[in-house]
Specification:
The chain has 12 helices and 12 strands. Helix 6 packs across helix 7. The protein binds glycylglycylglycine.
Length: about 350
């Protein structure tokens, strides 16, 4: 069987971490007698500067012609961030209706963290991925008058909440049976109380899952103070985005957190990406940590039914990360992106 993968290296460190990841995925599949066929797409900031759009208008149909997409990062200092983020990753999430963004965070043995007592942390954030504060509703009134008025409207529909909640409950059932819904229903009195009510309703179909509802500010504190008390978290688009960066830091930093943009229960190809952005400050230096991208690749393999290949990638990565000589500078080491990628590949091939 051949996996047809659309590869979007994107901007900044994106191409570097993707280049370290693709050979690992290919080797993992080949070990199982499968093949990886890649189509590289030049979407991102350079294309925006050249052609006025980060991806073609029919970008989603290009992705649909593949089994999945691996995306690096988007963003460059000479283009307004929202142009590229909307023109590429949020655009793809909306066009493909990728309802949820799954963001697992795990503390790997041997990987240092700036937060104390994180051993054994293993949680998953399920982020609603098409609406909320990132739905794109609003406008700019009185533009250029000196009294400019920005209006950003958050949208929370029962449909979007239900499908994210269904996925989060199912995930909790497969894990420890605990789900924390993160909202802010004390200060925001429309959308988040709807979240609370709809998620409680969905919970009635999942009686084995223990649901708690936590305010986002309290969750931020708890994530640092007692991260092991958490298993599956469900959050809207904005809170899920913010909390997943915080969670990544528990595991050693932004270079450690993978993600999957998926439409559960469908055959729509998922878009898999490290949670981190393009990191222009270190781009081109070959020192970005490819772990998040490699783990995103493992999620992709799992979702396509190549569980043995995914397991091989995760185990090789975990073993590689126990040795400080393989750590990139964000983890306190001096390994390069390609050295860490090659070490994972070597570990996998010699197992
Ligand atoms: N690799 C992910 C990336 O480049 N992210 C840029 C970003 O800010 N994305 C916004 C989002 O995830 O909602």
């Amino acid at each position: 069987m051949t996996v047809r993968l659309a590869v979007i290296p994107g901007d900044g460190v994106g191409p570097e971490v993707v280049a370290a990841t693709v050979p690992v995925l290919r080797a993992a599949l080949e070990q199982q007698g499968e093949r990886l066929e890649t189509t590289e797409l030049d979407w991102g900031g350079e294309r925006f500067l050249r052609e006025g759009a980060a991806m073609p208008a029919d970008g989603a149909s290009t992705i649909r012609a593949h089994d999945a997409a691996l995306f690096g990062a988007v963003g460059r200092p000479d283009v307004p961030d929202h142009e590229l983020v909307w023109g590429l990753i949020i655009g793809l999430r909306q066009q493909l209706d990728l309802a949820v963004n799954i963001r697992p965070v795990r503390a790997f043995p041997g990987v240092p963290s700036k937060v104390r007592d994180v051993e054994g942390v293993d949680l998953v954030i399920v982020r609603e991925n098409t609406e909320g504060e990132y739905v794109g509703a609003g406008g700019l009134a009185h533009a250029g008058t000196g009294h400019d008025l920005g209006i950003e409207v958050a949208v929370h529909s029962r449909r979007a909440i239900e499908r994210a909640a269904e996925h989060a409950f199912s995930l909790a059932e497969q894990r420890t049976g605990r789900l924390a819904l993160v909202t802010k229903s004390n200060a925001m009195k429309h959308g988040y109380p709807l979240w609370d009510a709809v998620v409680r309703e969905v919970g009635q179909r999942h009686p084995d899952v223990e649901l708690e509802i936590v305010l986002v500010d309290a969750m931020a504190a708890r994530m640092v103070q007692s991260p092991r008390s958490l298993d599956v978290l469900l959050a809207g688009n904005l809170f899920g985005d913010i909390l997943s960066d915080l969670a990544a830091v528990l595991a050693g930093g932004m270079g450690m957190a993978p993600s999957a943009n998926i439409l559960p229960g469908s055959d729509v190809p998922g878009v898999y990406e490290p949670v981190h952005g393009s990191a222009p400050d270190i781009a081109g230096r070959g020192i970005a940590n490819p772990t998040a991208c490699i783990l995103s690749g493992a999620m992709l393999l799992d979702d396509l039914g190549h569980e043995a290949a995914a397991k091989a990638v995760r185990e090789a990565l975990a073993a590689t990360l126990t040795t400080p000589v393989n750590h990139t500078p964000d983890l306190g080491g001096s390994a390069s992106t390609s050295q860490l990628g090659a070490a994972v590949l070597h570990e996998m091939e010699t197992r």
